[in-house]
UniProtKB/TrEMBL annotation:
Signal sequence region: none
InterPro entries noted in UniProt: ABC/ECF_trnsptr_transmembrane
Protein name stated in the entry: Energy-coupling factor transporter transmembrane protein EcfT
Transmembrane region(s): 46-72, 78-102, 258-277
Lineage: Bacteria, Bacillati, Bacillota, Clostridia, Eubacteriales
Alphabetic keyword roster: Membrane, Transmembrane, Transmembrane helix
Organism: Pseudoflavonifractor gallinarum
CDD domains: EcfT
Length: 278
């Protein structure tokens, strides 16, 4: 039994390696350029997100929320979001709801609390999946241009785009810091199940100690990038109307954008109809 548990824990640790996490993060940020969602106009997607990110908070009808959840779940699948992101979403949303339900039962509640908990879960899940669809399924530059078209400050839209571009550098720096700790450290033996538990605790400790060197090294490299942008006249280009017009000239509403909006509106109308009939 101990040998089976040891092999199982070893396979889990192998799958959740640093290279696996890095590939999942980079895939989620840059690997979705050929999807249906990525081909849509960012202005349409932002308007779509504003509806599904705000309206569910003010609706308590179960059938309407369930219909919206099914729609955003389909769009998330069309965006080809990385499996790690979906796993973290499911873990965060449903574990929190389960914790609240158990706390309700512990303090004198009964099964009647399931319906309010389900409404809360559908609200959070719908808004979260809508955010995942837009911010994970859309190219960072197109997302930045869409925000700029709506009048967001240039620095805000650029910061979002730059944050996506910082991901590879951040992951690379994090891996370098971890490797430096491992070269100078003495990890415990992990041949047995107890040793693997100690090894896991050791890895978590290294990750926590790597936070400050990671932030310091990333800040140094970010400063170099900012100075290069300043030398190339970024501050002037950010407020120049001609440059802004050139950047936004690539945005065009196509037939697929209108079809996406029409199908979404039709589905929402059907959800409203079902909620009034039930």
């Amino acid at each position: 039994m101990e040998r089976m548990m040891s092999k199982l824990s070893e396979s889990v640790l192998d799958k959740f390696s640093m290279d696996f996490l890095r590939s999942q993060v980079l895939k989620n940020a840059y690997g979705n350029d050929d999807t249906v969602i990525a081909a849509l106009d960012p202005r349409i997607l932002i308007a779509w997100y504003l509806f599904f990110g705000v309206v569910p908070w003010f609706v308590n009808d179960l059938s309407f929320l369930l219909g919206c959840f099914l729609l955003v779940m389909v769009t998330t699948l069309l965006a080809h979001v990385a499996g790690l992101v979906l796993f973290l979403f499911a873990l965060g949303v449903f574990s929190q709801t389960g914790y609240l339900f158990l706390a309700t039962l512990l303090f004198g509640g009964d099964a009647s609390a399931i319906a309010p908990m389900l409404v809360l879960t559908l609200k959070v899940a719908t808004i979260s999946l809508a955010s995942v669809t837009v911010f994970s399924g859309l190219d960072p530059d197109r997302l930045s241009n869409g925000l700029m078209w709506y009048g967001c400050p240039e620095r805000l839209s650029f910061s979002i785009s730059y944050a996506y571009r910082m991901l590879p550098m951040l992951m690379e720096e994090f891996q370098n810091v971890l490797l430096s700790y491992r070269l100078r450290g003495n990890p415990p033996a992990h041949d047995t199940l107890r040793g693997k538990v100690r090894y896991l605790i050791y890895q978590v400790k290294i990750i926590m100690e790597s936070f400050y060197p990671l932030m310091l090294n990333t800040a140094k490299r970010s400063r170099t990038t900012v100075e290069a942008l300043e030398l190339r006249g970024y501050r002037y280009a950010a407020v120049n109307k001609t440059v802004k017009k050139i950047k936004l000239s690539t945005l065009k509403v196509s037939y697929n954008d209108l079809l996406f909006l029409a199908l979404s509106a039709l589905w929402v109308a059907l959800c409203i109809l079902c909620s009034t009939l039930l």
